[in-house]
Please model this.
Amino acid sequence: MSDFQVIVVGSGCAGSVAAYELAKAGKSVLVIERGASAGAKNMTGGRIYVHSLREVFQDMVEHAPLERRITHERISMLTNDAAFTMDFSSRSMLEAGQDSYSVLRGNLDVWLADQAEQAGAEYIYGIAVESLVKQDGKVCGVRAGEDEITADVVILADGVNSLLTEQAVGFARPSPSHMAVGIKQVIELPGSEISSRMLCAEGDGAAWLFAGDATKGLPGGGFIYTNRDSVSLGLVATISAMRDGKETICGLLESFKAHPAVAPLIAGGKVVEHSGHMVPEGGYRMMPELIGNGVMLAGECAMMCVNLGYMVRGMDYAVAAGMHAGRCAAKAIDAENTDKAGLESYVQALENSFVLKDLRQFQLFPEFMESNHRIYNEYPELIRDAMQAMFIVDGTPMPRLKNSMLPLLRKVGLMALLKDARKGMKAL
Amino acid sequence: MSASTENYVNYVNMDAYLGLNRFEVDEGNPHIELVDDIDILEFEKLMRVCPAALYRLDENSSPSFDYAGCLECGTCRIACGDTIIKKWKNPEPIMGIQYRYG
Model:
């Protein structure tokens, strides 16, 4: 007889949702979280698309501690001396099921854990699971210090830096070319000031991504997400490129904050937290096996993340994966088959959902983004030069636009442009 | 040491930022340990990628690393494999970073 029917490691989006589903299904479930509270070891950019939270919690989502509804999508191409920004807003962003919100995990994760606890899940905080307990090749519990706790199923939801996936499914350290380092500061500003600087109605906000000079041409980019009374500002950069380059991630953050397009947005703001977190950017091709004998993986420990350059998603995948993991584990327990074959329905459920469909769909994209240096270097410069040809007036006779644009395109190379467009379209 | 790398980090600023975070430091019990014989080129890689800039050169240009401000992101664990990091584990119960915002 096991101590619990299910042990969930980690109380982020995937873990707490899995525990919530299991508790609702009447299963005994223990969540082990290494932070002193939920979210204490966690960080996001970030913005969450709430469709999958709604599927789990329905109207209760209205009570979730979300920051601002995102009503502006902005993308900037930066050179060190110029910025070109696109701004998209649409009524479609407001419709239920299509809406997204900025979030801070310190709040969101506590709320998610509360939902699971109220449904009947048990929680232990402040303990890091050190290893899995196996018997006859089947995972049957976890170990922390001298203590062993047993369960019929263990769900790993312990995040991008999981030290347990190797033991669970043989997934050791991911490659540094598949991982990015994220650095972020939360910068406090009055809410009304944020609304006016970001051109947003009260309570609404912007998601803003920056390419080019944000990372001084390295694969990656900058971001700003508006919270209620702060902005989350940071950078993401591929670890292998960063490691082998000349810049430091901390130095890049400082120069990003000082960029003429960014500095006015945060002027007078007060940094209140400095954080770091890895982002799994390799997509479908870097994912581990999602189940092992007696064990399931959900969320970032399974590398569930899609970065398309103009959009970064992870939390809605984690919520959906946690939901399916919880439901499928409950079914496996009812069927008294919790070995690998018994957990197979989880993989099927993800295959049938947007989670694996999206990850599969965009599996070529990470390599395209990582290998194409022009996106971070030549293209921001091309756009700057083209915009200068259009907007800069000095009283000298203006050439035909065609005559000023074509040389710019030739500088990058027409063939290179065509190839990148084709490759990009193929990967998307 | 490439001068370009060092010039980009203002360690005074970085320490001020880290000072804003809430940490429970497990004195005398580091959760990350480096090998004894440090390859400076490998060490420089960690100087570039660590988002807390904890991998530094001291006044004698010798490598120094302080686990006390660690954000527990795992980037150093991924960046250099086993060439330089001997041990990387999660801090002991309720030790380490405690994000308030996240």
Observations:
- The mean pLDDT of chain B is 91.
